[in-house]
Specification:
Length: 201
């Protein structure tokens, strides 16, 4: 069992990373292999809709996407974490998910004629567990959370929740203060328990 955490925050050791690592530490305590990937410093541009992944089996854009995408394919569960920027996930995480979704869908399906309907055969992410985590100073978490959940459900994944939405409250005045959100930390620990439970099932 392997859990990959992809952190879309541009801030090293920021609030989003803190909450994400709380989950990973809990999972490691249960004997589950984890990996943390930060998108800081990674070159991941937007999907151009060129459909080269349909013909070549991989994305045509030469940047750091394929490295992260391969890690996503190798994981049994994926934590997708982002701070909230104007009620949205970060642009780099959005670019990653757009391209991963596009490449993942065409890895399992073929283009059909415009007169035909699709009978989708799943995606490269089918039945993987996806756990969204979103963090904001005050509000906007649920919309950003929904973006990740919508990506997961259109890609045939299973979304993992907690005893509250998987969100954190931190960042007042730009501060790194996630360790003060005791309720949020509890939510993350419970999330880890749910991920472990579903993996072991």
């Amino acid at each position: 069992m392997k859990v990959l955490a992809v952190c879309g925050s541009p801030r090293k050791k920021g609030n989003t990373e803190y909450f994400t690592r709380v989950v990973l530490e809990e999972l490691e305590d249960q004997g589950i292999v984890t990996e943390f990937v930060s998108l800081i410093g990674k070159d991941i541009s937007e999907c151009t809709g060129c459909y080269s992944c349909l013909d070549k089996g991989e994305c045509n854009i030469e940047d750091d996407f394929q490295e992260v995408f391969n890690k996503m394919l190798d994981a049994d569960a994926i934590i997708l974490a982002s701070p909230v920027y104007h009620a949205s996930i970060t642009p780099k995480l959005k670019c990653l998910l757009d391209r991963a979704g596009f490449s993942g869908r065409w890895a399992k399906n073929q283009m059909v004629d415009t007169t035909e309907s699709y009978d989708w055969k799943g995606t490269a992410f089918s039945r993987k567990l996806i756990a969204p985590i979103t963090v904001a100073r005050r509000t906007g978490q649920t919309f950003a959370f929904s973006q990740i959940a919508l990506w997961a459900t259109v890609n045939d994944c299973l979304v993992v929740g907690s005893n509250y939405w998987n969100i954190g409250m931190a960042g007042s005045g730009g501060r790194i203060e996630a360790d003060q959100d005791k309720e949020g930390i509890g939510t993350m620990k419970h999330l880890a328990g749910n991920i472990a439970y579903q993996l072991k099932r």
